[in-house]
């Protein structure tokens, strides 16, 4: 009888405790969720170097391999237990693993009672950006040094030949070309810096694609005539896009100038435009030297030139296609490339199309004269820009 009473009392007390427990997860459960959802790799080790707790990010950063913590982290944890002082360690992969993290920095902190926590942070993106910055500064220095040095040498030649009118005229023409190239380089550097976020981009407006094509053609006419190249276009399309007209004209002009510069005299260059999957595609096709497949992914890099000798002869800066890429990205679009050496190339600029809203119909008004219902247009709205990464390499073959 006493046992039954004791059992009843224990069961009642357990029920009361369960009823008194607040609904929802406990603090321990929330802490576990926090660790598992952390963007940093987290591993908790005991005094023997065994893992007590870890999150999935620790696997991604290489902090945990085959259910064991990295040996460097374990050795550092032993020192932290002895000194009771936190320390930083380099946990970067010892061998290249493609697109995996390249620079991982870890911090080991004591938790007491022989436990330590290792927190790893991925600094790969910062390292890549720093490398890009160094390359950019080095490239800009080299590119600016070339025309500046040429101008200085040519000026000395003019001074030495001051009495020779023909030599002065010849060297003066070269100085003019080098100074023009220097000015173009500085202008394109400023434009590229603006597109990469140094300045706020202007507000996007509804732009006529046909107007952009006409203005870009006007800018390229002189260089095309000088190179004996005829540029043809398809019929006006009436397509509209959301963007900044000046930037779009600059991008298309760069594509046309690039096609003219890398095409032999007498060869054609064509422009086509179409609407595909909500994107307006403006393609520039040439019958020039083409680009090898292993270089096609690099032509949009700053200062990269597929044919350095031809680019020098035409005064190219190597920034035109980089500007095109950033203009497309800032408009929520992309730029694609199809090319074959000896056949030619097609660069396709893709920008989200402007969607015209359906016109609203006014209800018919009942009057003595019974006028017919009128259809009025509602103001156009700005749609959300959608980034698409679809490439259409066959687009150029149909031009």
TrEMBL record:
Domain of life assignment: Bacteria
Entry-linked PROSITE patterns: HIS_KIN
A molecular function GO annotation: phosphoprotein phosphatase activity
Protein name: Sensor-like histidine kinase SenX3
Compartment(s) where it occurs, according to its Swiss-Prot or TrEMBL record: Cell membrane
Organism: Amycolatopsis camponoti
Biased composition (Basic and acidic residues): 374-383
CDD domains: HATPase, HisKA
This protein's UniProt keywords: ATP-binding, Cell membrane, Kinase, Membrane, Nucleotide-binding, Phosphoprotein, Transferase, Two-component regulatory system
